[in-house]
Amino acid sequence: NAGVTQTPKFQVLKTGQSMTLQCAQDMNHNSMYWYRQDPGMGLRLIYYSASEGTTDKGEVPNGYNVSRLNKREFSLRLESAAPSQTSVYFCASSELWSNEKLFFGSGTQLSVL
Amino acid sequence: KQEVTQIPAALSVPEGENLVLNCSFTDSAIYNLQWFRQDPGKGLTSLLLIQSSQREQTSGRLNASLDKSSGRSTLYIAASQPGDSATYLCAERGADGLTFGKGTHLIIQP
Question: Does A4 contact B102 at a Cβ distance shorter than 8 Å?
Answer without folding.
Answer: no
